[in-house]
Amino acid sequence: MNKYNKVLVAFKDEELNCFASQGEWLYIAGKNDKKKGLFRLPSYLHYFVSIKERIPNEYGVVKTIDEYITAIDLANLDYKSRKKNPNSITQDELEKYEWFLEQINKFPEHTPIGASWLEKRFPKQEKQLRVHKKFFSGMSQEEKESIFNFKLEIHQRTINNDN
C-alpha cells in the first residue's frame, strides 16, 4: 500500500459552491451523497464531499499533511462518515481510493481541484471521472492566494486512534 502526504481539503466560499468548513478533508461524492439543494451543476461536472459531515464542495485544494495517509486509511474515514462498516471495503473500492490519492498527489500544494465526467463514445460508450486542476482565470493572483494558500492548522487525521 502506497503512502501519500497530500490530501484534498475544503475551502469555504459559498460563491464558488464550497460549503464545507475550511480544512476538512474531501473525497469524491458517491451516488448516495446529495448537494442538499445548495447548488446545481451541469451534468458533465461532479463534486466532492467532506469526509466528516458529507457537506458538498464543488472544488477542493491540495494540502500537504504532517504524516502520511494510505488508501485504506482514507477508505476507513469515508466509510465511517457514511455509517458503513469499514470491514466491508472490497479490493475494487480500495483501488478507487488509491487512484484518488495518486491523482491528488500529482499536484503541487495549494492547487485548486475539480472533478468532471469525460464521456467516450467510441469504440464503446463510457463515462469516466477525471480529477483535474481548476483554473480560476477570472481571479487576480491576490484573490487566488487569499482563497487557496491557507495553512492547514487543524489536523483531521484520527485514523490510528479511531480503530
Could you give a quick summary of the protein structure above?
With 163 residues, the chain is α+β, with helices and mostly antiparallel strands.
Give an overview in words:
- Strand 7 (112-120) and strand 8 form a beta hairpin.
- This protein has 163 residues and is α+β, with helices and mostly antiparallel strands.
- The chain has helices at residues 71-81, 91-105, 141-148, and strands at 4-9, 26-28, 45-46, 48-50, 56-57, 60-69, 112-120, 126-133.
- Helix 1 crosses helix 2.
- It has one domain (4-148).
Report the portion of residues in β strands.
25-35%
Order of helices and strands: EEEEEEHHEEH
Structural class: alpha+beta
Shape: globular
Report low-confidence residues grouped into runs of 5 or more.
Answer: 157-163
Tally of structural domains: 1
Helix content: 10-25%
Note the total helix count.
3
Mean pLDDT across residues? 89
Instruction: Report, as a whole number of angstroms, the end-to-end distance.
Output: 18 Å
Please give the largest β-sheet: 5 strands, antiparallel
Indicate the radius of gyration in whole angstroms.
Answer: 16 Å
List the helices and strands and how they pair.
Blueprint lengths: L3 E6 L16 E3 L16 E2 L1 E3 L5 E2 L2 E10 L1 H11 L9 H15 L6 E9 L5 E8 L7 H8 L15
